[in-house]
Amino acid sequence: MKVNGYQLREAMKRWQTRKEIAAKKFPESLRKFADEDKKPPMEVLAEFKAAENAIATLQTAQQWYNLQVEVTQGMTLALAVKRLGGASRAEKILKDALGIKTRDAFDYLEGRTSRDRDSEYAERTITDDELRNELEAATSETSELREAIATANATMFEFVEDLSELIK
Description:
Elements: E1 2-3, H1 5-29, H2 41-68, E2 70-72, E3 75-76, H3 77-99, H4 128-153, E4 157-158, H5 164-167
Antiparallel strand pairs: 1-4, 2-3
């Protein structure tokens, strides 16, 4: 059966919803009034377990898919997904650093406008221009990874196992 990454992801979302519904229905199924029509608890539990098993199977298939599909020569989809997290965090660090108000070394001392020759003050270690250049490179890297991941997720992959019952 041929499947792409988007199909796997959407199938997992559907099964996750089914699991959540069953989990919510189970406590409600433990009691009922005579005029109520409710599924027996073990039937609801069976639905919950079926959803859990489907999710586990789909997650395993997704892991396999991510290790088989390449986004670039020598880089699997699995590696690209993991690298995207780190690249996004680096991008955020740089954005946060640029958001810090640039101040004169003495501005933080309230009312201080002249130098105190006996004090030592911390100096900037990187300019805003250097930060902007690094941020631009980091943004470019995350964009390239996101694009590569999106393209790779559209790749059809032949699974030996029949997933048709789980993906419908």
